[in-house]
Amino acid sequence: MPAKTTAEAVNGPAVGPARGRYAKGRAKRSEIIETAILAFAEVGYHGASLRDISARAGISHPGLLHHFPTKAALLEAVLEYRDTVDGEAFREDRARGTDYFEALVRIVERNQVRRPLVELFAALSTEATTPEHPAHEFFSRRYDRLVRESTEQLTERAAGGGLAPGVEPAQAARSIIALMDGLQVQWLLSFDGPRSERVDMAAHVRAYLALILR
Fold it and tell me: 1-69, superfamily in CATH?
């Protein structure tokens, strides 16, 4: 027997017209999130308004509030979407036996064809440095997690002689994350020039990893 969806578990199985309304609601929710990604990327969280997002998504302002009662709730959904996209792909790579750091590079490769998500991250991560920003805790937890996980991976490699001489795991872990995020800004700026001069984020991350990993 197939597993129940969250909605079915709470409300019972959707049948007939109810199933159609549920699918329509999910589709509209996804459309709002995709529209919000573009809006937040273009003008930041503070610059975007729910009325502007609802107009872009072709839905009334009350209709948007039915799905997301506050702008903070919409931002949370947008960030969860980005994490889900990256997280699922990363877990699939790891399940196939891909090395941890190669799996990180593959995230960077995928980001090179997902400009709106990269623009979103660059805009929000800068805004969220202030403690009052609704995404502040999200980004703080994200950096803590990534640095911790990368430090653990590098420490394991060090124990097996897998790091270059003088490489300290905790410092290298923070450098990897800083490189990945900094390259996103350089990559976005490189769109102003010729395509041949566009920053290859994945190549630069691989080059750094080649310096520190044996």
Answer: Homeodomain-like (1.10.10.60)
